[in-house]
């Protein structure tokens, strides 16, 4: 963050040549400048480059308010918060002004009076762009006072008349003047509260308890909603929908690489999770979204795979602490624990009661098999299969250290196959090698080349 300009009065601001821009012009100009320079105005967003982002950019250029429609965990809130990056880093405001008005354009009676009295000595301060973004989670108990405002009884008690505009305590939207106001889960707002937004959205004035204040509010209103909310919990009333210039549908990542990038970016991992395991979780989430047994109206949030990655990383850290391992690395054996913990994050179709665990296990195995096929295609595992068929057993488990697991491998440690498996996954330490070999063994089990028995936290391939 750079330092704000050293300008503290209206006169100095005029002398500097500063030009006022209204909010939507500011957003438009900064977006077009970024596109001309080849800068990415949407850092940290994956999978929207050819679908959602072009629509949003056109909406910003057109100066439209925007509502994003999509199932849970599709990155709607993150996308809205990224809009802050299109604002100027610093903007001047009248110091002490309740609504943060531009020094050239005071809009409240108090600010106008100060501007007339002080002239070029009107004090100016600078507001960072992060302070120009306001966010409200819509809840059924949200009131008109929260969003628009209400008469402040304390100001009335001070002797002001009820008809005096200065008796009003402004709500979130007026306080977001010259900024962005985001309303998450818009359909959860009671319909009478949505009605209160109509004037703000179109006429840009506010009405409070019969008083009409002609405040030329300069705000961008953006909102998010789950399409199913129109029938499950509420709806966006038709006049309000009509006032949003753009209605944009979001979606889950289409490419597996984008899904993996989201998991890597958003997860806070307490241990190393190899890329192959992250890929398994990404494929697992995608299969859940395609399964007829899962309620697709609810969706399978990206947070499911993110939480799964964090869970298996925590399992690896736990194992490293109890077994004295130097490197905490997640392995295939940690995946089942994640399923046990996270199954409640998935909504199943009616009629699937009692089968939830079987469905999750089946889809997880499918994801593992696809990942094994992608990474180990062309490798000959005959040496390992023959050793196991000859009676060798390979034991692993949540509390079996990587060193102990590798030490129990039959003949594999002396073969080129061991190096090939590790090289395919870029394994460089014992934890990563154990994770790679476990994945290969699980692939052999799913291909019915070897058997597997699990009991009491121990897994034996034989």
Structure, explained:
By secondary structure, the protein is an alpha/beta fold. It folds into 2 domains: 10-249, Rossmann fold (3-Layer(aba) Sandwich), CATH 3.40.50; 256-461, no CATH class. It has 21 helices and 14 strands. The protein has helices at 10-15, 23-37, 52-62, 76-82, 109-118, 144-147, 153-157, 172-175, 191-196, 198-202, 229-232, 238-243, 256-266, 275-290, 302-323, 335-342, 356-376, 382-389, 402-407, 416-425, 430-446, and strands at 66-69, 90-94, 124-128, 133-137, 149-151, 168-170, 179-184, 206-208, 211-213, 219-225, 246-249, 394-397, 452-455, 458-461. A 5-stranded parallel β-sheet has the order 4-7-10-1-11. Strand 13 and strand 14 form a beta hairpin. The protein is elongated and about 95 Å long. The termini are far apart. The mean pLDDT is 86.
Keywords, separated by commas or semicolons:
single chain, alpha/beta, Rossmann fold, 21 helices, 44% helix, elongated
Which spans of ≥5 residues are poorly predicted at pLDDT below 50? none
Give the helix proportion (percent range): 40-55%
Give the strand line-up of the largest sheet: 4-7-10-1-11
Quote the average pLDDT. 86
Assign the CATH topology of the largest domain.
Rossmann fold
Strand content: 5-15%
Radius of gyration in whole Å, from Cα? 29 Å
- The termini sit apart by 59 Å
Number of helices: 21
Summarize the structure.
With 462 residues, this protein is of the alpha/beta class.
């Amino acid at each position: 963050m750079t330092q704000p300009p050293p300008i503290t009065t209206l006169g100095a601001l005029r002398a500097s040549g500063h030009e006022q821009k209204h909010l939507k012009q500011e957003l438009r100009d900064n977006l077009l400048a970024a596109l001309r320079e080849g800068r990415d105005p949407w850092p940290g967003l994956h999978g929207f480059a050819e679908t959602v982002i072009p629509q949003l950019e056109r909406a910003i250029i057109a100066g439209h308010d925007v509502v994003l429609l999509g199932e849970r965990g599709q990155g709607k809130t993150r996308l809205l918060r990224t809009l802050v990056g299109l604002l100027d880093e610093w903007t001047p405001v009248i110091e002490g002004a309740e609504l943060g008005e531009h020094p050239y354009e005071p809009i409240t009676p108090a600010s106008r009076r100060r501007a007339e009295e002080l002239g070029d000595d009107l004090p100016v301060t600078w507001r960072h762009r992060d302070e120009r973004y306001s966010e409200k989670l819509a809840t059924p108990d949200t009131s008109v006072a929260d969003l628009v405002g209400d008469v402040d009884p304390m100001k009335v008690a001070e002797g002001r008349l009820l008809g005096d505009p200065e008796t009003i305590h402004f709500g979130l939207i007026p306080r977001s003047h010259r900024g962005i106001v985001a309303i998450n889960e818009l359909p959860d707002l009671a319909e009478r509260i949505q009605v209160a937004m109509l004037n703000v959205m179109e006429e840009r004035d506010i009405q409070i308890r019969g008083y009409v204040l002609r405040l030329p509010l300069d705000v961008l209103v953006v909102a998010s909603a789950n399409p199913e909310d129109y029938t499950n919990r509420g709806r966006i009333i038709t006049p309000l929908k009509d006032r949003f210039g753009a209605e944009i549908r979001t979606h889950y990542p289409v490419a597996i690489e984008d899904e993996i990038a989201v998991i890597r970016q958003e997860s806070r991992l307490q241990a190393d999770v190899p890329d192959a395991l992250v890929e398994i979780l990404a494929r697992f989430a995608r299969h859940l979204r395609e399964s007829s047994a899962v309620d697709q109206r609810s969706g399978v949030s990206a947070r499911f795979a993110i939480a799964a990655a964090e869970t298996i990383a925590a399992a690896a850290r736990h194992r490293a602490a109890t077994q004295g391992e130097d490197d905490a690395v997640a392995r295939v054996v940690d995946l089942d624990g994640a399923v046990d913990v996270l199954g409640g994050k998935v909504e199943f179709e009616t009629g699937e009661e009692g089968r939830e665990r079987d469905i999750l296990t089946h889809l997880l195995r499918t994801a593992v098999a696809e990942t094994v096929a992608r990474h180990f295609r062309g490798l000959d595992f005959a040496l390992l299969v023959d050793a196991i068929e000859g009676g060798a057993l390979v034991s692993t488990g949540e509390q079996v250290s990587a060193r102990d697991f590798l030490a129990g491998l039959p003949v594999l440690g002396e073969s080129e196959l061991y190096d090939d498996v590790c090289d395919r996954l870029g394994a460089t330490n014992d934890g990563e090698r154990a994770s790679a070999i476990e994945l290969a063994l699980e692939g052999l089990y799913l291909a019915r080349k070897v058997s597997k028995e699990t009991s009491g936290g121990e897994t034996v391939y034989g």
